[in-house]
Amino acid sequence: MANIFSDVDVSGFPDDALTDHQKYEHPLVSRYATKEMSAVFSPAMKFTTWRKLWLALATSEKELGIDISDEQLQQMKDNLYNIDFAKADEYESKFRHDVMGHVHAFGEVAEKAMPIIHLGATSCYVGDNTDIIQLKEALKLVQRKLVQTIAILKDFAEKHKDLPTLGFTHYQPAQLTTVGKRCTLWIQDLLMDYERVTYELENLPMRGVKGTTGTQATFLELFNGDHDKVKQLNEKVCAMMGFTKCVPVSGQTYTRKIDYHILSLLSGIAQSAYKMCGDIRLLANLKEVEEPFAKNQIGSSAMAYKRNPMRSERVCSLSRYVMSLPPSAANTHANQWFERTLDDSAIRRIILPEGFLAVDVVLNLLMNIADGMVVWPNVVEKHVMEELPFMATEVILMECECNLDDCWIRFRPWQSLPHLMLTKILIHLFLCFANRRQSWR
């Protein structure tokens, strides 16, 4: 019989096969990300924000005396969401410039406004300000989900605050803690992250109206050298877009150090999540704690008995990626020459959205894990009882009538004894000291 597999192309597939599935899909979007965070970084959000920025600029310019009619402004307002993306792409291909492609696409539907769309502005007016607005909206989502995660963990900590469990240092049994107390370590980290997010939201500045190199020269010319009107223009636009602060000075762009601060904040959240889920994975191995396990979930295709902590593993995997992003932002900021170089553009299109998309998934997973986390008290107690005699050594050391060094010299040879024998000796010593104390009374 001929080998049926002999003519199978193992390295590819015909061009006409599976045509709807031949394009790479980013797993952060197609597999993991939530609809709300994806929307923040969507083309719809980006380009409607460009149009809002153009409307805010034109409105402010009119209020400060530039000859712009109400009809022009109304046309712009009526077409904020009327975007022909194909037409914009056509113009971009023609001009080799994305901003001018969208200026002309906007002008086609707001014809009377075409002469004053983008009046006096540079590309970074819409590009950078939109980036900041997207970062702000994404931070709001992260802040909300941090609050929800902390609230769920707080309930878990309260529920298990009196359940004694082995503490671990060096991943070796140490003195007792409680299941709830250990959870407060996770909460504390997330609270610190919440404080950082809140600070950034309160202090994140808009780029504002700065001109091509940050000197506002074009706007000074537009207002015939009136510095006060240029200053008012900047303030008005920032206020219209919901900002109380703008960068004091800029080159062509806002300082890329802001991106570094934002990604460092996201890295901090990822660190907290990784630590929490790392602990849960270790506790799952001890069979003291389990993350939620769905009714029809399969732990392993080959080993039916397994209950893998797959949610926690996913958190650690995504968090590891987020923690890798700040160095890219640091290098981008450090390599900006003078007022601006364009080598910041491509990498920022990737690392800023992906950092938020990943953290959004991580926080959703943390909420899911915390809300359904199962503790097995009998297993916890069993492990405590196995180590309890060894915890008595601290009491024995304090009761010995010799200095600490002498005590350790006497105890050290016992460390190599079999576990069961050493347990019996320690229980005996502890009882002896307990009886001696009783006789003193």
Give an overview of the whole structure.
The chain is mainly α. Helices cover 63% and strands 4% of the residues. The chain contains 18 helices and four strands. The protein has helices spanning 27-32, 35-40, 43-63, 70-78, 85-95, 98-109, 123-159, 179-203, 217-222, 227-240, 257-286, 310-323, 326-334, 345-372, 377-391, 393-399, 404-411, 419-440, and strands spanning 164-169, 172-178, 289-290, 374-375. The strands form two sheets. The protein has a two-stranded antiparallel ribbon. A two-stranded antiparallel ribbon has the order 3-4. α11 runs antiparallel to α13 and α16 crosses α18.
Low-confidence stretches: none
Structural class by secondary-structure content: mainly alpha
Number of strands: 4
| Rg over C-alpha atoms, rounded to the nearest angstrom | 31 Å
Walk across the major sheet and give the strand order: 1-2
Residue share in helix? 55-70%
* Helix and strand element order: HHHHHHHEEHHHHEHHHEHHHH
Distance between the termini: 94 Å
Approximately how much beta-strand content do the residues carry? Answer: under 5%
Biggest β-sheet description: 2 strands, antiparallel
Average pLDDT rating: 90
The shape is elongated
- Figure out the total of helices: 18
What are the key terms here?
441 residues; mainly alpha; two-stranded antiparallel sheet; two-stranded antiparallel ribbon; 18 helices; elongated
Question: What order do the helices and strands come in, and which of them pair?
Answer:
Layout: H1 27-32, H2 35-40, H3 43-63, H4 70-78, H5 85-95, H6 98-109, H7 123-159, E1 164-169, E2 172-178, H8 179-203, H9 217-222, H10 227-240, H11 257-286, E3 289-290, H12 310-323, H13 326-334, H14 345-372, E4 374-375, H15 377-391, H16 393-399, H17 404-411, H18 419-440
Antiparallel strand pairs: 1-2, 3-4
